[in-house]
Amino acid sequence: MNTFIGRHPVWSLVIVIAIAILLFLIFAVWPPELEQVLGRKRIFLSALLNGITLGGLYFLVASGFTLIFGLMRNVNLAHGSLYLFGGYFGYEIASWTGSWVFALVATFVVVAILGIVLQFTIFRWMEGQDLRQTLVTIAISLILADLMLWRWGGDFYQVPMPTWLGGPVEVPLVTAVRSSGELVYLQYPLVRLVILLGAIVIGILMWLALNRTKVGMLVRAGVDDRDMLSATGVRVQLIFLTVFAFGAGLAGFTGVVGGTFQSLQQGEDIKILLASLVVVIVGGMGSIPGAAVGALLIGLADQFGTVYMPTYAVVLTFVIMVVVLAVRPQGLLRGR
Amino acid sequence: MAALSVAERLSAVGTANALELRGVTRLFGALAALTDVTLTVRPGERRAVLGSNGAGKTTLFNCITGDFPSTSGTIRFFGEDVTHFPPHERIRRGLRRTYQISALFTGLSVIDNVYLACRGVSRGRFSLIRPSRNDALMNSAENLVQAVHLTAVKDQLVAELSHGQQRQLEIALALAGAPRFILFDEPAAGLSPTERAELIVILTSLPPHIGYIVIEHDMDVALRVVESVTMMHNGRIFKEGRPEEIESDPEVQELYLGGGHG
Amino acid sequence: MAMVEAARTDATRPEGWSLAATFQAHPALWLLAAFMLVLPAFASNFVLIEIFGWAMILGMIALSLMFLAGYGGMVSLVQMTVAGCAGYMVAIFGTSVMTDISLGWPWWVGVPLAIVIAVIFGTLSGVLSVRTEGIYTIMITLAIASAFYYFTLQNYTIFNGFSGFNAVRTPVAFGVDWRSPVPFYYLILFWAVLAYLVVVYVSRTPFGLALQGTRDNARRMAALGFNVTAHRVAAYAFAALIAAIAGVLLVWHGGQISPGTAGVGPVIDILIIAVVGGMSRPIGAFIGAIIYVILRTFALDALVAVGLDGKRFQLLIGLGFLLIVLFSPDGILGLWARWRARQRNNDRRA
Question: Cβ of C226 and B88 within 8 Å?
């Protein structure tokens, strides 16, 4: 970080000032003049937290996508289908067993197995043929999308949430001050906070796995230089299987999560795939921290856009992507 | 940039050195591939850069052509500061190079490859008109193909050529247009003795105003075609001198020439 | 990109290209040309416009993708979007049912303007895509294509959102109603053939050869004096021109344009058409297109006949595409080339 500050003093100052303003907006009580310009603080805080939690969701999906690309150079355009399939599957399991947690675990396992099957029967034979692999993923996403449409139709589905996750909690952020001087705190759905916490925990676990375990270091080495990986004599295909299985399982798992606080329906696979694309373009391909930063940015842009510029919310997201592509095409956090 | 005639180029050169590197360093993360390289080559000079694998020879070439930008230092080509120029700007000023592993256009024919090389340093790169029968550039390309003895296979796809033929094509690409200075990266790699002899003839019969640097492991080839030698070791210039001096230098012998050819 | 077999240009005729020579080398072309020219005499309007006309329009868009992918090594998914953009501009500048948005300008102002805007859009998309490694091109262009989709979906002031534009009329010019079946067929045929011939011609010009050079070895091209980025962007502009013209024909064909016209589905369909046909020669784009259109038209009946739900068309497409990518990644052209090679071997042995 010191090198960053040293090399980009102006940007560092801008970032510090931006963070200071942000902290002020979050923690201070807004004077009426500010509320007149920006609207109610409660709305701002909701958008902020919605953006962060949506960012958590995007991070979970995008990190699997970026890992698979980073290591195996496979642009897995079926990633959205795995998400949606996981969501539908989790819905069935949760409705059948009544256990949300069990649905999460079962979905992860099942979609991971699907990932193993795909990698073992198809992608294994196409190493080095990046375009061909991508085309196969497109074919798979078409097939999966139609099969899912056949089975579940065009309705909305929501994964039933356990009661202990329901309802709002009070978050220690002040939204307003009553005339009596009493402070009003923000009420926010517990489930979203839990999911955010889960995303952070999973993110940390992934970081630890990549940086502190032997397998993780092999994966990171492989991301940087694939030829070097085969030179180490390690069973490369086994590592590929593991990473694809994990990425797929994570996508399916996230489908259940998304289906809980959002909903599932036909077309969601494409939406989440596109969100993942934008997140990794912005954050940098093959970089987990990049996926985190990108997801946070896109989640916030999405929610703030929806609240403050409803007609052009989507445009804001893509404008960010275009700016990053124009200024730093390799992504924010990627070297080179 | 229009292709200037040789005479115009020579008169423009004046007394500038062909190549001047000052303090060129190239870092790959923490690895220093080149450290503080300072080098001067006169126009028309023929030099060899020798050293073991990993000494930084190809990295040196990459920095000179701009394939990789240098981390620090300056590079001047015929008096012009080209340190921040992209590769194509340096090439248009008369620099050429060959690659250790032939970098050819495998989906195109031999004549197409050479034609592109000729086109690259002249006008009309975006032309949407097919070359006519008497097109000057096409004639240059065919002459060049003849010069490297590839006329018999000129319409064949590069992918179908033998290794030796590909290396000859690699050289042809570097001779296109009006080169002022050429970088040859291991031109003799993988050549048979006959092909090696041909290579020596091609190199030594280049017009005297064209200078070049040769990276080579094959001492026989290298020392026969140059008048000066630069030795590199661990990314630094280790010694410079005439071929005979280098050959008989005890330090060099200890490092490189003792057990046979690197 | 080893899978996309490099589009080959005919290396045996470097001194120029002659229409007569091409016909001499491929006699089947005579039959094809004759067939296409006299088709209106015996085919129904449906076959003319909904089968062949539609196939040629899609073929043109796939051709623009093939140009970038086969000659340039850049698989761009934004070509359909460029066509959609041109179509939207025609609707906006010309007449449609949305009288509060459509400007009602004459076609000889609106159409060229629409094409110019679409080409600018395509070129800018190229600028964003070419500075990254080839593998990202698919991702970036897909993201741009969906950005366009979502924007047209949500913007009502210019693009009229979800409904888009209906009743977009093909002009009546020089006494001809260009949307009546026979003239419209010949109009499409003219532009499709022209696009095809231009692409074949350009492939052996300095511009086309340079593009192929950047596909085979971009680094070497730079070391020969070429500005690789500039060439790639220029290629996008050229491809956008073809796609834009197809886009004008597209909106006239359907008489309407909406976000779904250039949605993710159609964008992927164009890729499938190009891959299935084969990206090694320009004709592949049209081969893929006619297969797609025939499948699309008759799949419903075929599926029902086999006992499946007629709605499972996408599943059919997906499976077919998967089979092609697994067993003949260079598409139908690849199958044909291998069949011909085997024939030649058999002849030699006999």
Answer: yes
